[in-house]
Amino acid sequence: MCGMPSAETMQVNPQQPDPVLPTAEDTVAAAGSEFIGGPLGRRALLGASWWTPVRVIALVILGMFALGMVQKLPCYDGAWFYGASSQYTHACYSDVPHLYQGRGFADGLVPYFDKLPGDMDYLEYPVLTGVFMEVAAWLTPGSGTIQHQEQVYWMVNAGMLMICAAVIAVCVARTHRRRPWDGLLVALAPAFALTATINWDLFAVALTAAAMLMWSRGRSLAFGVLLGLATAAKLYPVLLLGPLLVLCWRAGKWRAFGMATLGAVVSWLVVNLPVMAFATAGWAKFYTFSQERGVDFGSFWLIIAQHRSTPLDKDTVNLLAVALMLLACLGIAALTLTAPRRPRFAQLAFLVVAAFILTNKVYSPQYVLWLIPLAALARPKWRDFLVWQACEVTYYLGIWLYLAYTTSGDKHQGLPTLGYQVAIGIHLLGTLYLCAVIVRDIWLPERDVVRRSGDDDPSGGVLDGADDAFVLGQAAHPPRHAVHAVEGPATVNWGRSPDGSF
């Protein structure tokens, strides 16, 4: 695999550009490859053997997912059931087994239609995630002790989520045709393995990754349908329509954006309307719960609240969080319309989801799953990716040790409040760092590793290689590439003229 290729293996399809060799352009990837025998040979990189990049990446992520399951073994063996603090000291907490009984699945209650006992009157998850949870409950035998049922329920969910993980990695590997090995960023991400089975977020992330793949292939309607389904499983995917609107505005691709929006709206309504019509209160619980919950773990709002003598008013925090998110979106829109070259879709998708995470009043550790596929597409640079992942792993350990400290009584085993605030700060700084290098790549496109290899916007679909139709400031046309050159309308420049005047 690492030797010199033969003349036979050197023959490739002349219609297909050569794939980007990660070990040739990334020093960290080259150094890391020494652990497995050095950089891959041309035969492997060109897919001339059975070990194609997509197959390798799929197997790697399945292996990493399995390691993540092994990491949960102390909780599976009893910490979920017999000790509140031990599931935190072992950093193996998961919502899945707790909600099997806590949300009525053990009793056969129907999500959204049947009221739950206790304070949580209905299931507080979007409809498609509720369907995922219910299907897993159908596959869980109702015999044995409740502890045994919860263990089986977690295993069933883990199996379903493992399929989602494989879908995510394969979609990322196929989105950038010339950069399939960027999928290894997802497959080897430590935070991915650690957080994959905490909750059901991987379902929405898989649908979003599939939607991104469809958009990269120019299938706008399919992108919209998948994005609408993803939004029916988790709210964050709908944010991708914002940067797509501004990109299509700059490129004049209104028909593609219209088809994507139509597909998203229709698929979301198909999933949600039946529940909205026949179980309105249960359907609305997710949206009212999000508004009514107070400042929670992981956010900078919690740091502020913990330094105040009086609690933060949740309505005020809601208003300020929305205002900060809107300001961030306006900044991303301004950057899109004024950048010297139209930003790549994956870059803006990462920035808008990161803005939501940074300004939100809660950050659960599994939310990092939203960003990992987008980060691999937006900034496929191992050094920056690993710096960010180190910050996220630090936060992952920090929140469980903090919860261990608060639940261990007088022993106070774990991380005190100040230490947890430091962990939050590390998470925030790590995410801001990755945002900063992506913004730099947008403003200085010659620093963008994707564009340095000769591509324009591999995840952009109809935007890839398109001319600008509307720009602000001294924005230049993207270079024309023979493999995807298209004719576009003339640029309307509302900023400075070439001589610097308005």
Automatic annotation (TrEMBL):
Membrane topology note: Multi-pass membrane protein
Taxon lineage: Bacteria, Bacillati, Actinomycetota, Actinomycetes, Kitasatosporales
Tree of life domain: Bacteria
Subcellular location: Cell membrane
Keywords (A to Z) from UniProt: Cell membrane, Membrane, Transferase, Transmembrane, Transmembrane helix
Pfam families: GT87
Identification of the protein by name: Glycosyltransferase 87 family protein
Coiled coil (UniProt feature): none
Ranges annotated as spanning the membrane: 50-70, 152-173, 185-215, 221-249, 256-280, 317-339, 345-364, 385-405, 417-439
Oxidoreductase found in the keyword field: no
Assigned protein family: Belongs to the glycosyltransferase 87 family.
Region described as Disordered: 1-21
Keyword Glycoprotein: no
